[in-house]
Amino acid sequence: MDLKELYRDVILDHNKRPRNFGTLAVPPAHEARGANPLCGDTLRVWVQLDGDRVTDVKFEGKGCAISVASASLMTEAAIGQTRADVQAQFERIHTVFTHHDAPLDPALGKLAALAGVRDYPARVKCASLAWHTLNAALAAADTDSPLSNPPTIKTE
Amino acid sequence: MTLLPPDATPFSASEIAAIRADFPVLHQQVNGKALAYLDNAASAQHPRQVIDAEAEYYRHDHANIHRGVHTLSQRATDAFEAARHKLQHFLHARSHREVILTRGTTESINLVAQAYARPLLQPGDEILVSRLEHHANLVPWQIVAGQTGAVVRPIPITRRGEVDFEAFRTLLTPRTKILALSHVSNALGTINPVAQFIAEARARGIITCIDGAQAVPHLAVDVQALDCDFYAFSGHKLLGPTGTGVLWGRESLLEAMPPWMGGGDMILEVSFEGTTFNTLPHKFEAGTPNIAGFIGLGAAIDYVQGLGLARIAATEEELLRYATTRLEAIEGLSIIGTAPHKAAVISFIVEGIHPHDLGTILDQEGVAIRSGHHCAMPVMEFFDVPATARASFAFYNTRAEIDQLVGALHRARDLFT
Ligand SMILES: Cc1ncc(COP(=O)(O)O)c(C=O)c1O
Q: Quick one: fold of B13-47+308-412?
């Protein structure tokens, strides 16, 4: 396998210069935390909603190139979309990660750069952590009380 | 305590070739490249002598032990107990009654925490645990502290990754009851001067529990010379099968301890009115053990003793020196853990490349290393890194494999810059 399939230039670029890296104030934003206990990586994702639309997403955390680039690409893919669009994108990327031969849906756009991950089963969790954490933050938006702790999800 | 003569010679190239021929797993391609197995601290590989001993046992002798008068049961019992005696001599223990056979280091330490410490500890008593420990020599102490009201106090480490002896002395109080310390750190490779710590502890009546998982077979271990109270290790780091381990304990302590688990083998007589427990070592060995595994472990001890522990240590020392020099020359690479006395373990980070990315890239080059927190999260926290990459060498590794590691690291840097 060619490592360049996994570490494409887009991935390396987003790893070096992550987009939307930072925090949002809670409230009005909603936060969730993600952890990959196997490797000790941690991630925090904030999401800001205006009605049904995702107006801003930010993240912070330490992780490998795959997890940082995946989070960074995810923020770009989610900002400005409706929640239903984000959910559809989540399902598309999830299919890419878990189905070795699934054809790449053109609607994936830049996210298709992550497709190399599926040849490295040990690394799928690195790439999916950000998306699971975003989902938890969106779910928190439906249930949040100002006093509750942000939900934490684990990839194991 | 190292009993090895300092002038032992490393194995020659032809000796290494002969040794490598004993290890079937080493001769394979991974991702199209020759395998360089540099993850020996996680688990060592098995020579065919160990694999054959297990297989032969299953082919000819298998039966349950300590409970049948028939021939196979007798053979199985004899082979199992012979392994115990090998372990006794390997550790220089006074008696086979002090050699408790467990599933591994983790079980051994939990046994000490539950059967020795739990009945003893009072609220406010203190357990000193070094910051270098594997979670297996930390979490059992936290659990028993929670059960008894005792307190776990960390012994600080230095920037070089050594347990700070002076800081340890200042932590000693009349409430200190237990010292938990590793002989060799799995995360950094530091060889701790455990004898010095043990002497200080014993002078104050503090019980010592030494985690020897990374010490065998790289150092010769003499529990009587060390003068510790408990010494734990796992068979699989000693070329033996997984699911085998040892707890050595001072006989007077073991004798006074209540059993930990109850069941078959650990009793002499059972009735509903009361049960008489078996004598040592069986009192702590409830249930059917990993019979084949311990027979394999006995073969592993024969194997390393046949090669000579001193020559094994000399060979690994040379590999460590060579690898350290080569890795230090790589731009952006920093070695974490720079104690002057180290086992053949190198933990490192490379600027701008996360250890997991290194792990994947190296694997594509056929090089197996570990990346992660190495079950030593307090160590990672101290050095302020989420994880490290770790290469760990055994006597069957070669300079060519270290060159392969170095080449793969250059490949990673090229990819990421
Ligand atoms: C220093 C140390 N202690 C304890 C353990 C735990 O050993 P096991 O998992 O075999 O019980 C290990 C193994 O990783 C180790 O390196």
A: Aspartate Aminotransferase, domain 1 (3.90.1150)
